[in-house]
Amino acid sequence: MPCHALFLQVKGFAWSGGGRGIVRVDVSADDGATWHTATLGQGSEQPRHKAWAWTFWEAEVPLPAAAVAHAGTRLVCKAVDAAHNSQPESVASVWNLRGLANNAWHRVPIRVVEEPPSGE
Fold first, then answer.
1. How far apart are CA 11 and CA 58, in angstroms?
2. Which CATH architecture fits 7-110?
3. What distance, in Å, lies between the first and last C-alpha atoms of the chain?
4. φ, ψ at 69 (rounded to 5°)
5. Which of 2, 99, 111, 119, CA to CA, is 20 to 30 A from 92?
6. How buried is residue 24: exposed, middle or buried, by Cβ count under 10 Å (0-12/13-18/19+)?
7. What is the value of pTM for the model shown?
8. DSSP SS3 for 67
């Protein structure tokens, strides 16, 4: 196992609705224990209260040692809009039978797979 830190390049897009722009996106590679602020890209130049398009973002997130050692973790991201609304942690507060208006933190399981050195 290498002793240097591993980083994951993550990209995505966010949208708030109601004309509110995205002011921040946070990304975590340890299921929300620690957060890293993403860099906002195209779409972030929209007026804060007249934003009608996606805001693209990207972040370089360090993978926790436990994720590398045990070959897995969950990547989590959440956005904050111009009115300082943040996505809820879970769907418990917004749950409905059809799944409409679900805007909880987006979670993606990831697994670290180490490639063998070249020549093997």
1. 4
2. Sandwich (2.60)
3. 16
4. -65, -35
5. 111
6. middle
7. 0.80
8. helix
CA angle 32, 36, 39 (to 5 degrees): 135
For the chain, 120 residues long, give each residue's pLDDT as a single digit of tens: 444 568 889 999 999 988 999 999 999 998 888 999 999 999 999 998 998 899 999 999 998 776 665 667 889 999 999 999 998 888 887 777 777 777 888 888 887 776 777 765
Q: Two tokens at 35?
A: 């957060």
d(CA 102, CA 9): 26
Q: Where are the domains of the chain?
A: 7-110
Q: Does residue 59 contact residue 39 with C-beta atoms inside 8 Å?
A: yes
Residue 76 dihedral angles phi and psi, to the nearest 5°:
-130, 140
